[in-house]
Amino acid sequence: MKKGRKGFLWLLAILMIISAVPGVAFARPGSDESYIEVKKVPSGKTGQNMTINMVFKNNEGIDLNNVAIRFSDESVNEESDAKENGETYSGNTFPFEITSDTFDNKMIGTVKNGSSKNVSLTGKVRRDLADGYYSVPIEVVFGATAGGKDGSPISFPDARPATVNIWITKSAATTESGKDEGTIRFELGENQNTPSGIYPQTMNFNMNVRNSSAVTAFDVNVRMKLDQDSTKFPFDINDGNYTRHYDRIGGGETVEVPYSMNIRKDVYSGYYPITYIIEYRDSTDGDVQKAEETFYVKVQNKDKEEETGDFNANDRTKARLIVDGFQTNPETVYAGEEFEMILHMKNASENVAASNILFNLESEKVTDSAVFTMDAGSSSIVVNSLPAGQTTDIKLKLRAGAWVDQRTYAITINEKYDSPEFKNAEEKVTVNIPVKQVSRLNTGTIEIMPDTISVGSETNVMFPINNTGKVLLYNVMVAFVGDTIQQTNSYVGNIKPGESGNVDTMITGTAPTMDDGKIKVMITYEDENGVVSDPIEKEITLTVTEQEDLDPGMDGSGDFPAVTEPEGSSQYGKIVIPAVIAVLVIGTIGTVFLLKRRKKKKEAEADALEPDALESEALEPEALESEVLEPEVLDPDEEKDNEI
Questions:
Q1: Cβ(282)–Cβ(217) under 8 Å?
Q2: CA 322 to CA 430: how far, in whole Å?
Q3: How many CB atoms lie within 10 A of CB 12?
Q4: What's the rounded Cα separation, in Å, for the pair 216 and 409?
Q5: pLDDT of residue 14
Q6: What is the per-residue pLDDT for 596?
Q7: How far is CA 630 from CA 584, 618, 620, in A?
Q8: What torsion, rounded to 10 degrees, do the Cα atoms 597, 603, 605, 607 define?
Q9: Which residues lie below 8 Å from residue 611, measured CB to CB, with a gap of 6+?
Q10: Can you count the helices (H) and strands (E) in the chain?
Q11: pLDDT at 644
């Protein structure tokens, strides 16, 4: 009884495990059924990749998920066990070379009930096989994942792995490098004339590519092999990609591969071999294989120089030393100022080293004077060695002449060095350094007429601007800024070196002066790049007074305007006018007194001539007294009125 319960529990556990595995629910295959069908016996050659094309059929009555196939390693394990035990293995020989991915899953995916899918497995045939048929063991896997052996083989009690028979023959052809050639062959240029072109015309041509085998080539890429050497490759490299792609080229099929190329200017006339690398697959899922073929083109340009037999130094190989770049510190070099120059010298040769290198710097000259000079040290630098493709830095401190014009000047780097095949090679390279001049200007005497105005009035400002530097001043502008005036801008224009521009403008007062009356004069200009300079500031003095009201009574009061502080001779009016009146009064009194006195004298003389009459007509004392004019005493009020 206990044994029966125990057996039942084991059976129940097995059923639970089987039910938990995906895909175990499909029906048992019949004893004569197979998942794999091969319509034609695959054939291959030793040492070459071989692809087995198969059809996977689902006749289980249900959909199958995560299906995969792979090479079975059962026979490999059996052979290995036999060797370990010292026995002779008499089973089937696994015909493919074993690599890390030989027994990986080849995913088929979901296969619906009653449907089929094409699938293939690829392997490289062992070189030690003899001609004949070989059985390839294959496993069907469900619940599989891509890559390793994560699934489980179908393991029905009566199921058996599939087997595919293949035919193997010895491979007779090998390449010069010892590598076996692929099963597919390509021929270039069959049944066509050699394409030709004449410089400078564009050369348009098609290249015939024929699959000379009976096997279809898939995923074909025809790549033109480029070369920078004009003696090997006669075309300019204009495009980034010269690869032509074809999804398939059938056995015996020919395709035309089009090209449009520009001929190089420096190539010689002649025939040039163009190398093509053809990449392809011999099945849709096969490994990428390569073939290298040559195709000739004809170019007509200049003829090669005749060999004279004379020695030519350029026939020897030497390094190429170039300036890979340079910087100056500061970045902008000004005339008369010191700067540091850093040269990045590079050996641009691919495989030729340079040694015992002497760099000697030579400045451009103007009127027999060097533009760049060194304050200290030497203009020659020695570098012991510079391997191919390497870079070294050279630092020098230079000074640009203060007298030079603003433009770019050259520094020539004279090179002398040794190469393995060329001693004391000499070359020259040049760098150009822009030199700037500092802009300078000053102003003449600033005239302002008048220097005192009232609010609303204008004054005229005139002065010259002198360009005392060596560079042209562009778009010179003058701005007048102050609290008591209306801001005014005056355009002067361009001023050449050594010349002057004149400012002549009117300024309007807007508010009375409350301080020292300083007005700012701001002068700006542009350089050759249109960058506006910082303003150069000058000052002028201008007094602005309150606006005068010349029409009395405009305010409705009827009174005279208030008397302001007298100016000039008018400030003495209060003293001069009363003095003049006093002089006139005194003069009048004196004149009357003199006239009366003269009259009295004449009467006295007349009396002396006629004594009798005089006596008879003697005047009474009162009458005489009345004749004498007393000075008139003016009333103070009347005197005041007279003064007015």
A1: yes
A2: 9
A3: 10
A4: 66
A5: 55
A6: 76
A7: 18, 22, 18
A8: -150
A9: none
A10: 6, 38
A11: 32
Q: Count of alpha carbons within 13 Å of 467, Cβ hemisphere only?
A: 25
Mean pLDDT, each 10-residue run in order, the chain (644 residues): 54 49 33 66 86 84 84 78 71 82 84 84 86 88 64 42 87 46 77 88 90 87 88 82 89 90 89 91 81 89 60 71 91 91 91 91 90 81 91 91 90 91 89 90 92 92 93 93 92 93 94 90 91 91 81 47 48 65 78 76 66 45 45 47 42
Residue 638 has a pLDDT of 46
pLDDT at 543: 92
Q: How is domain 441-545 classified at the CATH fold level?
A: Immunoglobulin-like (2.60.40)
147: closest CA among 111, 119, 99, 106?
Answer: 106
d(CA 166, CA 42): 5
The single residue listed with the structure tokens 């995560």 is 66
Question: What does R_g of the chain's alpha carbons equal in angstroms?
Answer: 60
Q: What angle do CA 533, 538, 544 make, to 5 degrees?
A: 130
Q: Report the C-alpha gap between 539 and 516 in whole angstroms.
A: 11
CA–CA–CA angle 449, 450, 451 (5° rounding): 105
Two tokens, residue 404: 């030079």
Q: Which residue in the block uniquely carries the two structure tokens 């003293």? A: 575
Q: What is the CATH number of domain 186-300?
A: 2.60.40.10
Fold of 321-436: Immunoglobulin-like (2.60.40)
- Per-residue confidence (pLDDT) for residue 12, from 0 to 100: 54
CB atoms within 10 A of CB 288: 11
* pLDDT in the model for residue 279: 92
- Alpha-carbon dihedral angle through residues 56, 59, 61, 63, given to the nearest 10 degrees: 0
Other beta carbons within 10 angstroms of residue 514's beta carbon come to: 9
Dihedral sign (CA 287, 165, 117, 247): positive
365 CB burial (10 A radius; 0-12, 13-18, 19+):
exposed
Asked whether 533 and 525 are in contact (CB, 8 A), the reply is yes
Per-residue 3-state assignment (H helix, E strand, C coil) for 316-344: CCCCCEEEEEEEEECCCEECCCEEEEEEE
Phi, psi of 398 (to 5 degrees): -125, 165
**Structural contact between residues 58 and 114, judged by C-beta atoms closer than 8 angstroms:** yes
Q: Among the residues of 200-288, which ranges form H helices? A: none
Q: What architecture is domain 23-169?
A: Sandwich (2.60)
C-beta pairs of 94-100 under 8 Å, 24+ apart in sequence = 94/136, 94/137, 95/123, 95/125, 95/126, 95/129, 95/134, 95/136, 95/166, 95/168, 96/50, 96/71, 96/123, 96/124, 96/125, 96/126, 96/136, 97/123, 97/124, 97/125, 97/126, 99/124
* Tally of residues, the chain: 644
Contacts of 466 (CB under 8 A, 6+ apart): 441, 442, 443, 444, 499, 500
Q: For residue 29, give every residue at least 6 positions away whose Cβ sits within 8 Å of its Cβ, in sequence order, or none.
A: 35, 59, 60, 156, 159
Which strands sit side by side in the sheet containing 254-262, from one edge to the other? 186-188, 202-211, 254-262
Domain with CATH 2.60.40.10 in the chain: 23-169, 186-300, 321-436, 441-545
Contacts of 290 (CB under 8 A, 6+ apart): 182, 277, 278, 279, 280
Residues pairing with 460 in the sheet: 449, 506
Question: Given the DSSP bridges, would you call strands 196-198 and 289-300 parallel, antiparallel or unpaired?
Answer: parallel
Cβ-count burial 406-440 (b if 16+ within 10 Å, e if not): beebebebebbbbbeebeebeeebebebebbbebe
Terminal Cα-to-Cα distance of the chain (whole angstroms):
163
pTM, to two decimals: 0.37
Structure tokens at 267: 């190539």
